[in-house]
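General statements about sequence and structure are easier to judge against a single worked case. When preparing material for the folding task, we compiled for one chain both its residues and its backbone structure tokens. The amino acid sequence and the backbone structure tokens for this protein are reproduced below:
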Amino acid sequence: RAYIPEISKALGPYVGLIITNCIIMGRAEAFAQSNPPVMALWDGLTSGVGYMAVLVIIATIRELLGAGTLMGYQVLGDGFTTWTIMVMPPSAFFLLGSFIWAAKSIMIKKEAS
């Protein structure tokens, strides 16, 4: 930031995605090193699809509640009050935490029965 502030400002929104992609690729590489190619391919495909699904679900919820739209089309009525927090970056973490909590709760209930 101190030496090239323009580049830092331009890359700012993308740094988190770059880091996350590196984590996913590192995990895929670690799996591929100790497993046959077909299993590594399947693991890479399912990991990528799972990551994409989480991003799309979180983005859809944030757009619906933050703007009342889906892909630019007004979905919720004019009387809908938008949730300002949903257009802020921390809302994605809140949603992700809620998904993890819900998934763990469901798994615990399934194990108990």
Summary: The mean pLDDT is 90. Residues 37-67 form the longest helix (31 residues). The radius of gyration is 19 Å.
